[in-house]
Amino acid sequence: MSTTADTSPASTFRLRPAVEADSSCVFSLLQQLEGYSPEQEAFDKNFAFLLQDEATTLFLVGADLDGTVVGYALTTITPLLHVNGSSAQLQELAVDVTRQGEGIGTALIEEVERLCREREVRQLTVPSRRSADFYERIGYRSTADFLKRTLYS
């Protein structure tokens, strides 16, 4: 997967596919999310699976020039009957709270969109509780409400 998505010539971060060594940084980003407490054992199992699942998963990180991960985007892709092809859903987007507003999230989404187009994905959906304004600023529009039922806690 080619990821050459610098936001400008003076970019302070690079986008790339996630790798095993990113695990602790991604876990730290999850710990910053409001109202969520990641469990290390479950995280480790899922992280390893997602790295291997290139067919239905796009897992990108934004990293400082020194390699420190400062954001990530996790997208799943599945064929759907009602879209006449595949649909992608941005499942998770997180940017370090000290780096928000620098374009990292936008760059991650733009790269997800590029990779989805490359795979001929027909649509990209984004469920969002607190960030609708961010997504609307970059061209997304609200088309549905998502309802959730927790099956296991």
Automatic annotation (TrEMBL):
Q: Which InterPro entries match?
A: Acyl_CoA_acyltransferase (IPR016181), Bact_Acetyltransf (IPR050832), GNAT_dom (IPR000182)
Q: Which Pfam families match?
A: Acetyltransf_1 (PF00583)
PROSITE patterns recorded for this chain? Answer: GNAT
Instruction: Outline the extent of the N-acetyltransferase domain.
Output: 13-153
Keywords from UniProt, A to Z, are: Acyltransferase, Ribonucleoprotein, Ribosomal protein, Transferase
Provide any one GO MF term from the record: acyltransferase activity, transferring groups other than amino-acyl groups
| SUPFAM superfamilies membership | Acyl-CoA N-acyltransferases (Nat)
Q: Which GO terms of the cellular component aspect does the record hold?
A: ribosome
What is this protein called in UniProt?
Ribosomal protein S18 acetylase RimI
Q: What organism does the record attribute this protein to?
A: Salinibacterium xinjiangense
Q: What high-level taxonomic lineage is stated for the organism?
A: Bacteria, Bacillati, Actinomycetota, Actinomycetes, Micrococcales
